[in-house]
Amino acid sequence: ALWHLRTPIRGTLRDTATTALDLALALHPTPAVGGVPTAVAVDAIDDIESDRGFYAGAVGWCDARGDGRWVVAIRGAEVSADRRSALAHAGGGIVAESDPDDEVAETTTKFRTILTAMGVRQ
Asked: pTM score, two decimals?
């Protein structure tokens, strides 16, 4: 089984004009999908990886008042307009202490969840 924990962060904004989108932009990319230090990690990702598309992007909404909710898309799928193909995404966070076999197992579990949701036989 795979469990993801979340830590709600609450606070009072210094500037009441700050919107949910402003916060999402300030926090993206998170260390979980971009690495640290951010600038160095993002440059390395740009050099090594192909375009991530929606994977690891901020997904959410913002209303006219600036209220909203945003999450990071660490798992997901895109279905083509003609519904004949799909592209699924799942990833893992690699740090110095990571065990490669454990990371592959975790990412495989995440990916199976996506395939099951899409009705793909495995």
From this structure: 0.69
